[in-house]
Amino acid sequence: MASPTPLNGPDDRFYYFAYGSCMCPVDLKRSLGESTHAYVIGPATLDGYRLGFFRRSRLRNCGVLDVVPDPTATVQGVLYYLPWRLSPALDLREEGYCHETVTVIASGQAYAQTRTYSVISKTHEEIAPNEWYSSVVMRGAATCGLPEQYCWELFHHIHSLQRRQAPEPLRRTA
Q1: pLDDT digit string (tens) for 54-88?
Q2: What is the per-residue burial (b if ≥16 Cβ within 10 Å, else e) of 64-92?
């Protein structure tokens, strides 16, 4: 786990709250070009937001996660403490999203001035994720120790979207 204290000064690292595929350190490594396991602080909670699949990723050709304000909800995710040198690559990965500064809670401690990303042009309805994206999100949630109940709720939400948006099976006529 990463140390919450900067190693070489206050501007060398930044806190990053991941709630989608970036929760998976293996998938995040694919974009950032280096292992991110050492930068994981752990599970974190973002109050006042909820998850939704309000963006169609042209790269993944499916719905991808977003956070939207909701005073009655919370989002579980993973808190990272990343070196600033990784910021440009993270911004490239999060094409279609903009920075949002939030406060998250991890291990009972508040982390203000934490970066997360929210979708710039949200769709009006949620779009189902594909199996690959879903599995990366669920792997990240499980790997980084998000609460089991939250993982089940996320799984059921994904599954219900996929069922609702699945094409109707062709019916044979005699």
Answers
A1: 999 988 889 999 999 999 999 999 999 999 999 99
A2: bbbbeeeeeebbbbbbbbbbeebbeebee
Residue whose token pair is 């974009």: 31
Assign residue 135 a region: left if phi > 0, alpha if psi is -120 to 50, beta otherwise? alpha
Residues 143-153: what's their mean pLDDT?
Answer: 95
Question: Which helix (H) or strand (E) element contains residue 150?
Answer: helix 148-165
DSSP for 43-110 reads: EEEEEEEEEEEEEEETTTTEEEEEEEEEEEEEEEEEEEEEEGGGHHHHHHHTTTEEEEEEEEEETTEE
Write the pLDDT tens digit of every residue in 25-46.
Answer: 999 999 999 999 999 999 999 9
Residue closest to 114 by CA, chosen among 26, 45, 32: 45
Residues 33 and 23 sit within 8 Å (Cβ to Cβ): no
Nearest to 97 by CA among 71, 130, 134, 59: 59
CB 27 within 8 A of CB 140: yes
Q: Provide the 3-class DSSP secondary structure of residue 136.
A: helix
One-letter identity of residue 114: T
Reading the block at residue 23, the tokens are: 């929760």
Rg (alpha carbons) of the chain, rounded to whole number = 17
